[in-house]
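Our working data are protein records whose layout never changes between entries. Instead of coordinates, the fold is spelled out as a row of discrete tokens. Here is such a record, shown just as it appears in the course material:
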Amino acid sequence: MTSKGEQEPGLRADAARNRARVLRVAREQLAAGDDSLQLNAIARLAGVGVGTVYRHFPNRHALWEALSTERFQELVDEAQAAAAEEDALAGLYRLLRFTLLHALGDSGFAAVLESASDTDARTAALKAELDGAVAHLLDRARRSGAIRRDVEADDVRRLLCGIEHAVRAGDSDPKRTEVYLDVLLEGLRPPR
């Protein structure tokens, strides 16, 4: 059985099987602690030609995008739920915390989240959906006077990626994560 992220519309059956096999091997490599995702090694382990891997995933980032599809959908769902919360600021904090914890737990997802460009149209669509939900949440928070007027969804994503880097640069102490999130939320508040 393949997940949604492994199915590519319009592929021949053999090509779809090869793509699914490459993704399965990549997930196994990650589960074993190897996040290098060397495409040549994955091709060998999947029993397919290197050209086959590169046809589906022209570079390592494209593979990370495919592996992150489900995680992005979870993030979009969380953003929509946060945007529907009665207290927009509480929803924003919940979303920031959820996103940061997922980015800290998955460096590939973090790389895709912070990337300015996307290889896969699905990734771009999910990012647009995410930005739309975050923009709605920010609009609600702005209307209530809880955050500054000059902050956009893309700004929040970039700031959160900066916090992810800061946490990784330190000792990854969970207490620091909460401190950094509090600093970010305080910085999002309107000037007094």
In short: Residues 163 and 179 are 10 Å apart (CA to CA). The radius of gyration is 18 Å. The mean pLDDT is 89. The chain is about 75% helix and 0% strand.
